[in-house]
Amino acid sequence: MEHNFISPFNHKIKKKIVRFSISKFKLKGYKIAHISDIHLGYYLGESFLDELVTNIIDIKPNICVITGDLIACIKSFSTDILAPLKRLTKEIDTYFVLGNHEMGLYKFRVENFLSKLRDLGIYTLHNQSVVVKSGNYKFNLVGIGEKIGKYYNSPVDIEKSFSKIDKSLETIVLVHRPNTVKYLKDYNFILALSGHNHGGQITKLGLLTSIIRNEWRYLNGKISLGEDKFIYITSGVGYSRFPIRLFAPSEIAIIEIN
């Protein structure tokens, strides 16, 4: 029953190891710390983020990825709360893609927020890609934009996201909304990492919410999309609207490949 009920007064984060065997990915034992949906500013603040950073550093991942909704969409939000991320980026290369909360708060000024993250040492991928190096091995990391960006002159642009990849390398995709992968059928990638659904947050009721959102096929967990192609949807870290998580544990997903 541990971790089944979580509130701001009893917030436990489990470290969940998720293993993938992907023959195309030739690097053994590669480790990615994957977090999403922290929603800083609602109920969780700077001290919580500082503790989260410590937990991630202790994992000793090769890289860390944040798949959106790092912050809450509240008018009183201040980027000062993000200061602990500087400690994270000094230790671990960290990559970020936008979620609906960042886009909903900053709207036409979302580049201002991304610039702040870059000042903290985070690599932002907004319809962009980058080549990640680990020793002599390299792979593409693609970051896809957020759906509601279309209302703020910042739409999802999948073609642009993949346009500058090195086609000789394997590709990992970061995207906030998991059902976006249904638009990636014509693109080569081995793994997509996503969040957004909070694992239902209050699972028995949250499942209904996810169906209404038309995302029931991609609620959470590891899903095969074909041979050597997967998506992992983390249940996330924080809360949206209601400060309760029931049967949807808060997690840092530790993605281990091969």
Quick take:
With 258 residues, the protein is α/β, with parallel strands linked by helices.
Kindly describe this structure:
The protein has 258 residues and is α/β, with parallel strands linked by helices. It has a single domain (5-257), classed as 4-Layer Sandwich (Purple Acid Phosphatase, chain A, domain 2). 21% of the residues lie in helices and 28% in strands. It has helices at residues 46-59, 85-91, 100-106, 110-119, 158-162, 203-212, and strands at 5-6, 13-20, 30-35, 63-67, 93-97, 123-124, 128-134, 137-143, 171-174, 191-194, 221-226, 229-233, 245-246, 250-257. A 6-stranded mixed β-sheet has the order 2-14-3-4-5-6, covered by helices on one side. A 6-stranded mixed β-sheet has the order 7-8-9-10-12-11. Strands 1-13 form a two-stranded antiparallel sheet. The protein is globular and about 45 Å long. The protein starts with a strand and ends with a strand. 44% of the residues are buried. The model has no long low-confidence stretch (mean pLDDT 90).
